[in-house]
Fold these 2 entries.
Entry 1:
Amino acid sequence: MPADADCVFCKIASGQLPASIVRQNQTWMAFLDITPLSEGHLLVIPKDHYLTLSELPDEVCGQIGSALPTLGRALIQVTGADGFNLLQNNGPVAGQVVPHVHFHLIPRRHDDGLGYRWNAGKYAPGREADVISAFRNALA
Ligand code: AMP
Ligand code: ZN
């Protein structure tokens, strides 16, 4: 997957733009978010350009996924946070601003005021069975 000349994360991956890199290998890079929700907020990106998680090859996603526990432990050690969120936005409707797939690791503290609305819903009678069936067909 070639780099996108207009993509800010491609520019970071290639070294054209500076970033506060904490770890990288041939496939991915982890660096500090430039406008952190809290100190130590990390972004993890594949070095190649993919728009969303759905486009990311399993192999690349696997490599990034394997690194997340280590990065999470380092984040807790470095920041002393009480926990962290793993956040991954796909598409503008989901809050994705940078069109190059990325994973946020966001340190959390009790009473930090961060959060989001979690309006838990409920399936209408029979609807859950339809949804399960549609998923099983899609994944067959
Ligand atoms: P999202 O809303 O999921 O697309 O998040 C994009 C994130 O990228 C935001 O948290 C930005 O602060 C961050 N960001 C944008 N440009 C840079 C940059 N040059 N270096 C580091 N982080 C950046
Ligand atoms: Zn890119």
Entry 2:
Amino acid sequence: MIVTGTQLDGACVANLHACTFLGGIRRHYNLLIMDNKQIARVLRETAQLLEIDGAIIGRYRSYEKAAELIDGLPESIEQLVKEPEKLKELPGIGDRMVEHLQEIVKTGDYALRKKLLKKYPATILDLLQLQSLGPKKVAFLWSNFKAATVADVEKLAREEKLRDLPGFGEKSEQNILKAVEVFKKSSGRFQINTAEDAAAAVIAHIRKAGKAVESVTPAGSLRRGKETVGDLDLLVTLADGHTSQKQVDALAEHILKFPGIDQKLAHGENKVSFTLENGLQVDVRLLEKENFGAALLYFTGSKEHNVALRGRANDMGLTLNEYALATLKAEKRVAGRTEEEIYAKLKLDFIPPELRENTGEIAAAENHKLPHLVTLKDMKGDLQMHSTASDGKNSIEEMAEAARKLGHQYIAITDHSKAVTVANGLDEKRAAAHIKKIHALSEKDLGIRVLAGAEVDILKDGSLDYSDEILAQLDVVVCSIHSYFNLDRAAMTERMLAAIENPYTQIIAHPTGRLLLRRDPFDYDMEKILDAAAAHGVAMECNSYPDRLDLKDVYLRMCKDRGVKVVISTDSHNTANLGFIRYGVTMARRGWLEKADVLNTLPFEKFLEKLRPKPGSARHKRAASR
Ligand code: DGT
Ligand code: CA
Ligand code: CA
Ligand code: ZN
């Protein structure tokens, strides 16, 4: 959907994340789910900060060692801290470390890490990501140059200020510049929720300028709903009578007083740029209302879409820039106040921002063939969420109540199966009791249908982690991979095919396993998998969790082309996560999906009818006899 200021304010209220501004993606802890990886990261970063701080080796090594251990531990630390005696049996874990771990699990952070982050900017940890810069050199650069960001170090290297330093040299200066390039490519992007939260905070601040500001609108990749954002582009329109350069300068002054600013960058006549404490750059453009449509179109992009539009304009004897659409010859203004009038003058239907990637949307707009994209309002249910039975933080009843309040008609509780021990997965015995418990809940009392589902693990060989007996009792069988991520392409393809061919499988959850900015997708033959899903009536999940957003847009479009149905689910681990569904809808829109492509836009009974029929059911027999 189009991200508007109002929506962003809502997002800000529902801000679930610790450290939105303190630390970027890699230091973006979800207070409510601390898995082993996150706990290990808190420890590792504490160790790194201690090392930069010049602590003795024994001190920081103990944190490093604990981090390594926890990273590879099959049991959940969150569970283990409840049994400190068991925890202490682990090598290198003593009374002190148990206390540290309890604190981390309880608060989502660690006081020592926080204390060190008062002394050093959080971005200093980025420097350790640069190959060839260890903690000693980082500490040296900080104490001598107050260099705390990759940009600071790049500047020093470019100005040849590093080569004469003790322990550096010309070669190492070159290596640092190379490392900076790698860093810029691989990171420096931010999850959509981080960008949205930051945008909401900056927008709220800009609005405090009062009547000088007419509107504040996010543009760029955030408005297009991309799953990661490089920087924020905000457009501010000036109210009538507030457009003199003096007034614009005063507004710019106000914007630069935003408390979250780390560094001020460019400051032009009608533009201010700065970085936030997490490294996210913000470009704010101040403009007159008259040019708003042209500017919004231009700065929303994508660049490829803009290039194609400009080409089209030229072919029509027009010229398009960020100020207006005008005639080529006389430079007479034709449109510019709204995007709608510009598209209309270009003889195009209005193209929703999520489609502006130059992948066929312009031809579709010309021929009135644009899809009627699915909207958040269309969503009637959520088919993946966890309760306290596995690794969720809320009870079934609490999840149901929160989902009802969001306007859902039905949900599936899908706790983990037994193979996922780190998430306290349920074995057959617990699963059977869990299903009974869910079936005993009354729709009347809850005001929402609650399906007994499970997120059943797809094992290494593609078989499912529950017996057919349990699978048969489930209302919804959601299957996904949580282990052996690195099988080769052939083996992974076979594994996925086997899962899809299992007659109980109804939905494949987070199908590629990607973790944005952290873990690459599994390697398998997507075309083959989607062909099989189409043949067997298995739906693919569009996972709304902002760390995943899996499937991605291109794959969602491939689903649509093949008639594979999509389910938009949140994978919630607490009640607040249920709101993430809006990110899933945004991804679905980027994948050109319409209401009819998404199963959980259907009312309850219809939804059940469209789900793959269960073995033994009348529908299944009918399908089999065809
Ligand atoms: P990002 O920030 O990497 O996630 O992606 P964008 O799309 O927000 O890119 P950004 O911030 O560099 O620029 C914002 C928009 O401004 C972009 O989507 C299109 C427009 N734009 C920027 N540079 C150019 C350019 O050189 N040519 C054209 N046609 N448009 C540009
Ligand atoms: Ca941008
Ligand atoms: Ca930008
Ligand atoms: Zn999962």
